[in-house]
């Protein structure tokens, strides 16, 4: 049977991907309390319906960062999408472009931004930045990004150190990848993935690696990153952000903001938007959820930048909930990867189409003609 929702795509992805890779995408951190709380907090949001509104053809159009978009969705940056499918980043970008949805390229993508731009010439590409310790290397990366017609930079600010993901330590998935009898057997049990993503591309282009690393450090995911200059800088400050703001000619979004004071500081420092995000519950288990933090930050819209939100979205109704709580747009992270794993570019596009259809259905039941009509039940 054809998949009907994101959970169906997730189930197919679970069958097709090695366990270590699937867990890396799907699971959280520490005791995974945050994952459960994200889901519970979204389930607890109720939306207020309006009745007898006549025919309500729902419009999903929105203005995001001063531009009109046909939907309020953005594909979030996800590391190693090119390990889910061959040329996975390009396939996701093309799937998103079918609906006018921006695709955010990760610093830790397998494909470099130049290849993604060539493969998806019509896509609206954003770029997510992890700042390397060598700022000259970072500046050169940003020059490459700007040359690929990416004018929106997403600076991730909630990953100061590697999170504790014990399941990946147990199953041996990581970078560098360290073969064990268990994880090698797991890959051999997924021959389609092994051939299509690792062996066949490896014969043509070499082993997968971080595509944005300088060539001399692009040794494949089996090799450790020994260059200190390419390690993520754990000590970023607002002064660093100001320097980035002064040097970048486009728009800058800060991703990973959960506090009102930080949101207000972001606006004062020149951020064009922030993403209210718990990193999908993947970094730290003791954080508030997006659904808890978002309405507090949105309570004084004049004092904060434009708001995006992410974490835990599985249904179109989840998107509507974040919009009702104050977001202008919602990022999708895991879900597009499940679609990609299940059916490549077509699978990712089908998943997006399902979510958009669920959004339109939900707006019909709410009597909402536009996204501005969405409102939480307790208002």
Secondary structure: elements and pairs:
Blueprint: H1 6-16, H2 19-26, H3 33-43, E1 62-64, E2 67-69, E3 73-75, H4 88-97, E4 103-105, H5 113-119, E5 125-129, H6 135-147, E6 152-156, H7 166-171, H8 181-188, H9 191-205, H10 238-247, E7 251-257, H11 260-268, E8 273-276, H12 290-298, E9 306-309, H13 316-324, E10 329-332, H14 334-366
Helix pairs in contact: 1-14, 4-5, 4-14, 13-14
Protein name: L-lactate dehydrogenase (Cytochrome)
GO molecular function, one term: L-lactate dehydrogenase (cytochrome) activity
EC number: 1.1.2.3
Number of helices: 14
- What's the number of domains? 1
Structural category is alpha/beta
Strand content: 5-15%
Strand order within the widest sheet? 3-10-9-8-7-6-5-4
Question: What do you see in this structure?
Answer:
The chain is an alpha/beta fold and 379 residues long. The protein has a single domain, classed as TIM Barrel, CATH 3.20.20.70. Helices cover 42% and strands 11% of the residues. The protein has helices spanning 6-16, 19-26, 33-43, 88-97, 113-119, 135-147, 166-171, 181-188, 191-205, 238-247, 260-268, 290-298, 316-324, 334-366, and strands at residues 62-64, 67-69, 73-75, 103-105, 125-129, 152-156, 251-257, 273-276, 306-309, 329-332. The strands form two sheets. Strands 3-10-9-8-7-6-5-4 form an eight-stranded parallel sheet. Helix 1 (6-16) packs antiparallel against helix 14, helix 4 (88-97) crosses helix 5 (113-119) and helix 13 (316-324) packs across helix 14 (334-366). The N and C termini lie far apart (41 Å). The mean pLDDT is 93.
């Amino acid at each position: 049977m054809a998949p009907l929702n994101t959970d169906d795509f997730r189930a197919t992805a679970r069958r097709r991907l090695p366990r270590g890779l699937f867990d890396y995408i799907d699971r959280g951190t520490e005791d995974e309390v945050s994952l459960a709380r994200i889901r519970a907090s979204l389930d607890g949001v109720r939306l207020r319906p309006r009745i007898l509104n006549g025919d309500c053809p729902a419009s999903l159009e929105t203005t995001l960062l001063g531009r009109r978009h046909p939907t309020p969705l953005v594909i979030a940056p996800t590391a190693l999408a090119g390990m889910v499918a061959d040329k996975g980043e390009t396939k996701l970008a093309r799937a998103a472009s079918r609906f006018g949805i921006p695709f955010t390229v990760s610093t830790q993508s397998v494909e470099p931004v130049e290849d993604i731009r060539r493969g998806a010439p019509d896509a609206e590409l954003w770029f997510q930045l992890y700042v390397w310790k060598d700022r000259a290397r970072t500046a050169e990366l940003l020059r490459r990004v700007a040359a690929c017609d990416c004018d929106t930079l997403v600076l991730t600010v909630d990953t100061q150190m590697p999170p504790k993901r014990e399941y990946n330590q147990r199953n041996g998935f990581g970078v560098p990848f360290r073969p064990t009898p268990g994880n090698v057997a797991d890959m051999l049990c997924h021959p389609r993935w092994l051939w299509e993503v690792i062996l066949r591309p490896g014969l043509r282009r070499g082993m997968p690696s971080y595509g944005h690393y300088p060539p001399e450090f692009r040794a494949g995911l089996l090799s450790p990153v020994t260059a200190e200059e390419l390690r993520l800088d754990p000590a970023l400050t607002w002064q660093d952000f100001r320097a980035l703001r002064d040097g970048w000619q486009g728009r800058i979004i800060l991703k990973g903001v959960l506090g009102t004071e930080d949101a207000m500081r972001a606006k004062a420092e020149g951020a064009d938007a922030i993403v209210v995000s718990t990193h999908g519950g993947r970094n730290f288990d003791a954080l508030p959820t997006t659904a808890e933090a978002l309405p507090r930050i949105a309570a004084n819209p004049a004092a904060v930048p434009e708001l995006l939100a992410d974490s835990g979205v599985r249904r179109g109704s989840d998107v509507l909930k974040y919009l009702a709580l104050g977001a202008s747009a919602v990022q999708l992270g895991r879900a597009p990867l499940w679609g990609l794993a299940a059916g490549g570019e077509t699978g990712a596009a089908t998943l997006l189409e399902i979510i958009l259809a669920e959004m339109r259905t939900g707006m019909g039941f709410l009597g909402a003609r536009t996204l501005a009509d969405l409102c939480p039940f307790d208002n």
